[in-house]
Amino acid sequence: MDGKGELIEALVARKALWSAREPVTVFGAAMSATGPVQAQATFDWVASRFTGFESAGWEILSADVSGDLAYVVAIEHTTGSIGGAPGESYSLRATTILRREDGQWRAFHRHADPVEGSEPVRDRLLGGAAGSAGAR
């Protein structure tokens, strides 16, 4: 099993976490987007590049809540295959900011960049960036 089903489930859950209200910004390791529609299109594009999935996990470095705002700073570790290539591991430094909307936590900003040594995986992910909704 290539894990694609598990990856799709994880990405659907991740997309559901995101706010549909402005402002929304994603400064991703591979793509960037502004606004909820462009962010969702960027998540779809990134998901389309993965052809296999083995594992994912977060190493939480810091997190806090203050009123209706919260943040998480983490190293995200993922192992999977991109564009049909053999599976490999990579890590991203990521900061996610959330706000409470109608009693639910929703992400509205994310900034991620590759941990040193993970840049080649990011470059393979970008192999089809020209037709994506987001900007680099």
Topology:
Layout (H helix, E strand, L loop, with lengths): L3 H14 L7 E3 L4 E3 L1 H14 E17 L2 E14 L5 E14 L2 E11 L4 H7 L11
Parallel strand pairs: 1-6
Antiparallel strand pairs: 1-2, 3-4, 4-5, 5-6
Helix pairs in contact: 1-2
Query: Helical percent range?
Result: 25-40%
Low-confidence stretches: 128-136
Total of DSSP H or I helical runs spanning 4+ residues = 3
CATH architectural designation: Roll
β-strand percent reads over 45%
Name of the CATH class: Alpha Beta
Account of the 3D structure:
The protein is an alpha+beta fold. The model is unreliable at 128-136 (pLDDT under 50). The chain is built from three helices and six strands. It has a six-stranded mixed β-sheet, sandwiched between helices. It is globular and about 45 Å long. Helix 1 (4-17) packs antiparallel against helix 2. It has helices spanning 4-17, 36-49, 119-125, and strands at 25-27, 32-34, 50-66, 69-82, 88-101, 104-114. The chain has one domain (4-127): Nuclear Transport Factor 2, Chain: A.
List keywords for this structure.
136 residues, alpha+beta, Nuclear Transport Factor 2, Chain: A, 6-stranded mixed beta sheet, 3 helices, 6 strands, 26% helix, disordered C terminus
Can you describe this structure in just a few lines?
The chain has helices at residues 4-17, 36-49, 119-125, and strands at residues 25-27, 32-34, 50-66, 69-82, 88-101, 104-114. With 136 residues, it is of the alpha+beta class. The protein has one domain (4-127): Roll (Nuclear Transport Factor 2, Chain: A).
